Amino acid sequence: MAHALEPQAKTLSEAGRASLYGKLTELDPRMRILAVCLFAVVTVALQTLSTLVAAFSVSLCLLILSGLPKRRTLKRMAMMDGFIIFMLVLMPFSMPGDAMFTVFGFPASWQGLWKAIEIALTANTVILALMVLVGTMEPVTLGHALHRLRCPEVLVHLLMFTIRYIEVLREEYLRLRGAMKIRGFRPGTNWHTYRSFGYLVGMMLVRAIERSERILSAMKCRGFSGRLFLLQDYALTRRDRLFAVSMFALCAGLLILDHL
């Protein structure tokens, strides 16, 4: 008895996603992964501000072609900027150069400002391309495509199980928090709160280990031997080849423009 990992590209839900998100979701997932990896490497290698703006324009064009809700997608991208906003703000003060202004004796340089803009453009360009080309995939489709790209099976298994059980752990956390509230727990800045959250994390780890052992036993009972066999295969179409050539030409054009 073998476990099978079957892509969901042909299911009704995936067909609905394709009609909702546009034609990019109909491309071969392997080609989308390779294209976004190539585009990300080229974007990181760019050094001039003009070519970074051009690369960001390519990501925006992909967003338009994908049919994703633009406002919500850009808002999600802006959430990523919250992780690097402090670095971007401090960058002008950490790089030497021509001073723009001084804050409490610390000069902010123009060179640092331009470097912060370059970092922000690079990060947003790559994240937006990932969200458009890879973020619209179903998890099973992503795992299937990575396996066909000869990624290590262990990494593919870890990815699939992680995606599957993140929500399970979240539900377990909510149940434990609900039990704490029923018993009158109110968080504060005291040792009782710190100990309670420590017990919460410990209990989640214990229950996660117990659940993993039960899942492993259930999979072994069903004949799991450490491999997930694929029932379907992908085949490149003319549209996939045209998309690959277009992305390669765009990346080559960005590199040439960057060195002019």
Protein architecture, described:
The chain is mainly alpha-helical and 260 residues long. Helices cover 72% and strands 6% of the residues. Strands 1-4 form a two-stranded parallel ribbon. It has a two-stranded antiparallel sheet with strand order 2-3. Helix 2 runs parallel beside helix 9 (238-258) and helix 4 packs antiparallel against helix 5 (110-133). The longest helix is centred in the C-terminal third of the chain and has 31 residues, at 191-221. The N and C termini lie far apart (59 Å).
% residues in beta strands: 5-15%
The main sheet comes to: 2 strands, parallel
Q: What topology, given as strand order, has the largest sheet?
A: 1-4
Say how many strands there are: 4
- What is the overall pLDDT average? 82
What is the percent of helical residues? over 70%
- Can you tell me the overall shape? flat
What structural class is derived from the secondary structure elements?
A: mainly alpha
Terminal CA distance:
59 Å
Task: Please give a handful of descriptors for the protein shown.
single chain, 260 residues, mainly alpha, two-stranded parallel ribbon, 9 helices, disordered N terminus
Concise synopsis of the structure shown:
By secondary structure, this protein is mainly alpha-helical. It has 9 helices and 4 strands.
